[in-house]
Specification:
single chain, 7-stranded mixed beta sheet, 7 strands, binds S-adenosylmethionine, globular, alpha/beta
């Protein structure tokens, strides 16, 4: 990705995604995790403090070495064993039915081929396993969508390929997940053009 993507962007994301406003959403999306967990786009480990007691181990999927390094203190303070065992969500090195639950927070916007990543998550989740997610994406309102389409090229350049106009629910259902919970809302304090957050649970089928 070059110097900016390797050395600057992970620090920017660590600060931007680490803001207090995200904490209740992280708590909410993590609360039903249990057993062996796959975390897609682990970033700098901002979800680690919110893993509940029923989580036995976490496999982190994260391409950025610096993001993983920035997670150091949170990992040291965690009682849950976390290992970075894959770099790319589109090609997971695990067998079928390996995980009880999976977690994705503000990651499907950035993965180049989210459909491929979701197919992989579904493959490695056990039957009936659940994906817990909070993602920003296409807004429900047409006037906001127009702004999202205008701003997306700039957003992608500045934030490592982050898209504004992906439809999270549609991506999940197209990958074969069944949505069992879906809450769509504008995040407090965030510019509306970032889109609406989709927070929920999807079953692997
Ligand atoms: C906006 S950040 C969110 C990080 C973290 N999930 C959080 O909530 O703070 C998007 C993350 O997706 C990661 N990412 C990008 N491409 C990826 C891929 N192909 N597979 C897995 N993660 C990827 C980035 O490195 C980055 O850490």
């Amino acid at each position: 990705m070059g110097w900016y993507g390797d050395w600057v962007l992970p620090r920017v994301i660590n600060v931007a995604c680490g803001m207090q406003v995200g904490v209740p959403l992280r708590q909410r999306v993590c609360e039903q995790l249990h057993g062996r967990v796959l975390e897609l786009g682990f970033g700098s480990g901002l979800n680690v403090p919110y893993y509940p007691a029923g989580v036995t181990a976490v496999d982190a999927v994260e391409p950025s070495d610096l993001a993983w390094k920035l997670a150091g203190k949170r990992l040291a303070a965690s009682s849950v064993p976390v290992r970075r065992s894959a770099l790319d969500g589109e090609l997971l090195p695990y067998g079928e039915d390996s995980f009880d639950t999976a977690l994705s927070t503000w990651t499907l916007c950035t993965i180049p081929h989210p459909a491929a990543a979701l197919r992989e998550v579904r493959r490695v989740l056990r039957p009936g396993g659940t994906l817990h997610f909070v993602e920003h994406g296409l807004a429900p309102d047409e006037d906001v969508r127009r702004w999202q389409h205008r701003l997306e090229p700039l957003q992608k350049r500045l934030f490592g390929g982050c898209h504004l106009t992906r439809s999270v629910g549609d991506l999940l259902t197209a990958a074969g997940f069944t949505l069992t919970e879906l809450d769509v809302f504008y995040e407090k304090g965030a510019p509306k053009a970032l889109g609406a957050d989709s927070l929920g649970t999807a079953v692997s089928g």
